[in-house]
User: Fold this.
Amino acid sequence: QVQLVESGGGLVQAGGSLRLSCAASGSSFSINTMGWYRQAPGKQRELVARITSGGNTNYADSVKSRFTISRDNAKDTVYLQMNSLKPENTAVYYCNAVVMRPTYNIDYWGKGTLVTVAS
Assistant:
């Protein structure tokens, strides 16, 4: 069983920055893609950013110029640097990892970390 442990959430003023971290452990197979999703009250979970083991990234359009995702493959850790935060970015942010098996992939999720941006 793969464990994903997020850290770095909290309360920040609008215009400020936070850096989220997520460490994965327990996988006997390659972690292909790691990413961050978020869920605001009353809304569905949505992609924020993701990154492959080769370093290819993609972002939600709303965060492309402000957020940066990165990873340390040796440590199975993914980061999300969030700059110029806005109140509408308030949400629970979830770490995701896609673990490759011989014939299929499995999605794992962290428990989430709350990011609150105050105006």
